[in-house]
Amino acid sequence: MSTSTFRRFFGLLGWFLLVPSTLTALGAAWILASGMNMLGDTHNVKGRVVGHEEIMTGPPHRRGLAKKSIVEFVASDGRTFSFTGSVARQQQAIHKLGETVAVRYSAKSPSQAEISSSTTVKIVVGAVMLLSSAIGMVFGGLLLRLRPRATA
User: How far, in Å, CA of 134 to CA of 77, rounded?
Assistant: First the structure.
């Protein structure tokens, strides 16, 4: 194989790293922005755990039972909403029945509320995604620089 073939391969590999990494970085930025209350008018209130939803997790050969908390809260306009938390935990829910939790919701869509402690998970996941996509973009850019140059 010639040097030119290797350089073409590196250029192609660079694009395969650069494009998905850039899209992942955009998604990670959105996750971080939503986790850090940067997307519009967000309210914080207290809610109460009124139940648990049981779900099956894992692949068919290793199924397990997990529980999510169902939370009820009163929005600033006086309406009552309930939602199911996004974080599931094996065997028992993170929050006990009747426990008071901090709830975060958008003024435009109170039905899309979430337990505030789950935003920590969003921030960590977003930061890890952003870091890994930045590394992918750097390597993709370096590989693109190795591709053959057009001759004049």
Answer: 42
